Each structure stands twice: as structure tokens, then as C-alpha cells.
User: Fold this.
Amino acid sequence: MANVLLIRYGEIHLKGQNRGFFLRLLKEDIAAALEEFGAEVTLGQGRYYASGIADSCLAAAVDHLTRIFGIWSVSVAKEVDKEFSVICETAAALMQEELAKRGGSCTFKVFARRSDKNFPMTSNEICPELGHVLLERFPGLSVDVKEPEVSLSVEIRERAYVYTNEIMGPGGMPAGSNGKAALLLSGGIDSPVAGYMMMKRGLELECVHFHSFPYTSERARDKVVSLAALLARYCGTVKLHIVHFTDVQLALYERCPADQTTILIRRAMMRIAESIARKNGCKALVTGESVGQVASQTLDSLVVTDNAANMPVFRPCIGMDKYEIMDIARRIGTYETSILPYEDCCTIFTPRHPVTHPKLDRIQKSERAIDDYERLLQEAIEKTETLVVSGSQASG
Ligand code: ATP
Ligand code: MG
Assistant:
């Protein structure tokens, strides 16, 4: 009885003529993730199958698949001949394992799906017949059709597949199927979540981080590398551009009205990030901003920030409150790293009373008053360091 992974895709089902493009991309991603296990990946009716994986590696293989965008869910299934007696024996073996885990008794329900209409029994016939066989064999079993502890599924397709598990994937669209964007990645909670959400929609990310050494430490920089690595677990590798931002920040801090510093810094970030984005083929910026979260994220501040960018700015956290963002961060594995102590370049230069309703003309006037401002921005862009960060560098 061979084990095979049944890999279901989600939203790709809704695609029309271009479905083949997305299916090919997803197959490549699945094959790459399972390469180390020597898996053979094939596409069947509405499913991929991954076979040839040693039993001892199945859990690790499933774990890899739960980070591939486009995958709806995965089941470890027994692949057997399309004969009812064989299906019954396979189901009994699986049920025996489930009973052993549960102290000898549990409730169950049989689910059947027949896409091969040549199979002599309909799904409505398979369910009661198989249920009956199992009830006769195991006195500790009882049926619960509403909330069964064990769902035993049988699918009659290219072959017969029997399983008792379904592990959810992340959903979304295959990585990179929708082009590239630049994520402004701080060391906080929100921006890794924002990056994850856009990756899930099929965007490839380049990360841009603003570092103000010596006002921000090497430790703060390492933390951002760790966050980039955690995001890279969902796509293989990401590029991380580290911008040396100290001179720009000092100029704004020393030569502009103190209450404007925060919004001026945000605009400078947008301009630098946009330039790096264009050089690297990105068509949009992504930030972790959420309306009203802090002074720089009031509606008026966001409008003045947006004015500095000439490409779309995606803010997938915009309508979420902090607790919702934190929940996602925990689920995707970035939270524990995000809450490590660090100094962000914004916090260090934060005025005591930042403007919450900035006026664009006043902000622009402050920028014009710095006569070498364009040169400072240009120098920061030129001195940017780029690292390639791999998901295998991620800890935790
Ligand atoms: P996060 O929003 O990631 O939790 P934060 O709350 O410290 O971090 P904010 O001050 O809310 O950051 O900044 C809003 C957004 O601006 C961030 O989500 C991020 O996209 C961007 N940003 C802030 N600081 C930096 C930085 N040092 N480098 C890159 N992007 C930054
Ligand atoms: Mg934030």
C-alpha cells in the first residue's frame, strides 16, 4: 500500500483560459519543495499527486507544502487498486491506527467521492457499505455524521485513495505569478505580515530596510535579516536591500521643524524605496501601515506619504487592528522574532509631538529648504547593500 500525497489547489479552480499557466507554476513550486525527498509530482484531475516519498519523510514533506502559496490542502493517502474489498481493507488498517491513538474508541464518518464513473458503486453506496464493514470489524467505533472525530475519505479517481487527514495549506496564488513588488520591511510586527499577504496573492517580493547606524544597532539589522529569512520560507529566497539612512535622517532632524520629522522620514523612505523598486523590476510598494495606528498613519499623513510615491502603494493591513495583525504574525511564524527588542530608525528620531494632520505644501517647503536633499537621497540609494536571504537561514 503506497503512500501518496494528494495536493489540492484553491483559487486556481476559478481561472479560465489561463489556468494552465498557474497550474504549471504551482507544479514547479511543489516539485522544488519536494526535490530533496525524491518525489515524483504529477497533475491529475483537480489534484497533484506526489509519490515516491519515504514514509519517514512524509511529515517533513507536508510541512514544506503548507508554505506553498496556491495549495489549499494536503492529505497523506493510501493509493490502492479500485476494488471495493481492497478499499475496505485499507480503510480498516487506517481506522485501526486511529483507534489505537484514541484508546480504542471514537466516532467516525465516511466521505466518498467518485470521479471515475466506471467504478461500479456510487459515492452514496460506498459510504454506508464501508461504514457497515468498519462498524462490524471494530466494536469501539460509532457513527457521528455531524461532528465525527475521524473523517475517513475515499476518492475513486485515477486509482483509489483512502485517508483520514487533511492539512490546510496557505491558499492564495502561486509565488511570483503576479509580478514583483518592494516591501518596506521594518523590524516590527506589521510589515512581515503585509509582505506575507501580498506574497499570498502571487507577488514576488524584494525587501527594503532602512538602517541608521550607529543610531540603530547591528542587532537591529540582524533581526531584519531573520525576518526576511522567515518570509523566504514561503518562496525560497528574497533579496534584502539595506539602505544606509543616517545622513538623510540627520538632515531632516537637524534642518526641519521637529514636529514634521516623522512624516518627512516616511516620504524619504517612499522615494528611496521607489527608486530601488524600479531598478529591480518592482511595480508597486508594500507597507505594513494600518489607518490610525500612529501619527504617521492618520488619513492625512497617509495622503501626504502617498504623494511622495509615483507607484501604487499596497497596504494589506490598512483595515486591520493590531490584534488581528498579531494573530496572523503568530500563524505565519514571524511574531516571536518581531517582538524581540530593537531600535527602529523611526523611533529614534520621533518627535515628542508629531503632526497628525500634515499639510502637503508645508512638508514640501521643508524638503525644499534642504538644498542638497536630492543628493542625499541619491547617495543613500547608491550606498544600498543587497543581500540574498534564503528560507533555510530561518530559525524557529
Ligand atoms: P511594523 O509596522 O512593521 O510593525 P513599526 O510599527 O515599527 O513596524 P511603523 O512605524 O508602523 O513601523 O511604520 C509603518 C511602515 O513603514 C512599516 O510597516 C514598514 O512597512 C515601514 N517601515 C517603518 N520603518 C521601516 C524601516 N526601518 N525600514 C523599512 N520599512 C520601514
Ligand atoms: Mg506599524
Notes: The radius of gyration is 26 Å. The chain has two domains: 2-168, 180-393.
